[in-house]
Specification:
mainly alpha; Arc Repressor Mutant, subunit A; Serine Threonine Protein Phosphatase 5, Tetratricopeptide repeat; three-stranded antiparallel sheet; 11 helices; 6 strands; 56% helix; 8% strand; transcription; TPR-like_helical_dom_sf; DNA-binding; DNA-binding SARP family transcriptional activator
Length: 280
């Protein structure tokens, strides 16, 4: 099932572009424009950092970027900023933040007209960006390409695309933004998408026989996610296929002990079957 935060078919038709993402055409761009959410929320024009400094303006920008090219209704924006007890001036304040973003876009050379980039709708706002300008859009595109190639058993082509998608991440998403209810949900969803993409990448590279190369990554993932049986299962397999069966058995014993102590359960049937094969 696709995430509700993926840029599905509900994207709106954008107005005429305000410029080319690589800065080669007019429209006010003076170099490649980049928006980042897979780590700190940042805005770059070439090598110049154009990120807004005011915390709530940055919070609004994060919300708009994660719903780029679609209308963000005013009500969830207000709830994101002030929770269930917004001030009476909330709507006016949101309008002020939108005005400040438009001024920033023009001042920093991101657009000739801020209203072409951040458009007012009847019940909210829509921020229009090119897919190449926003890291999460590039992440989704590369991930989807990799998954499609895996379905065709084209693992040598799938693996680099999936790794390229993962390389777009610098740290936890929106790390420099105060998170309300909506952005907190976005972060959880994005982290799950990253984890799933990493699993696809590992599967593709295992199909390519890169078992030794995966040991370090899988050890790190089992340490980070001590209750995740999938990463332990894969680590057991790559250790076995690298001639390190005793270490694979140790991974199983460690997982079983952790699951018993923390949850009172045994490893899954698939993991137990792999353990039995290692013993035979």
């Amino acid at each position: 099932m696709e995430s509700e935060f993926d840029p599905g078919d509900d994207r709106e038709s954008a107005p005429a572009p305000v410029g080319d993402p690589d800065g080669t055409a007019g429209g006010g761009y003076r170099g490649p424009v980049r928006f980042s959410v897979l780590g700190p929320v940042e805005v770059w024009l070439g090598e110049r950092d154009c990120t807004p400094k005011a915390p709530k303006v940055l919070q609004v920008l994060a919300f708009l970027l994660l719903r780029a090219n679609r209308t963000v209704r005013t009500e969830p924006l207000i709830q994101e900023l002030w929770g269930e007890d917004p001030p009476r001036s909330a709507l006016t304040t949101i309008q002020t933040y939108a005005y400040q973003l438009r001024r920033l876009f023009v001042r920093e050379g991101l657009a000739e007209n801020g209203e072409d980039m951040l458009v007012t709708r009847s019940h909210g706002y829509a921020l229009y960006v090119e897919p190449e300008q926003l890291d999460v859009h590039r992440f989704w595109a590369l991930r989807d390409e990799g998954r499609a190639l895996m379905q065709q058993n084209r693992f040598a082509e799938a693996a680099p695309r999936l790794r390229a998608a993962l390389d777009l991440w610098s740290e936890n998403p929106l790390v420099n933004v105060r998170l309300g209810a909506h952005l907190s949900a976005y972060v959880v969803d994005l982290q799950e998408q990253r984890r799933n993409t990493q699993q696809f990448a590992i599967e593709a590279e295992m199909e390519l026989g890169l078992h030794r190369e995966l040991i370090g990554e899988l050890r790190a993932m089992t340490a980070t996610h001590p209750l995740d049986e999938w990463f332990h299962w894969q680590l057991m397999m790559v250790l076995d296929r690298s001639g390190r069966r005793s270490e694979a058995l140790h991974v199983y014993r460690s997982l079983r002990s952790t699951l018993n102590d923390e949850l009172g359960i045994d490893p899954s049937r698939e993991v137990q079957e792999l353990h039995s094969r290692l013993l035979s």
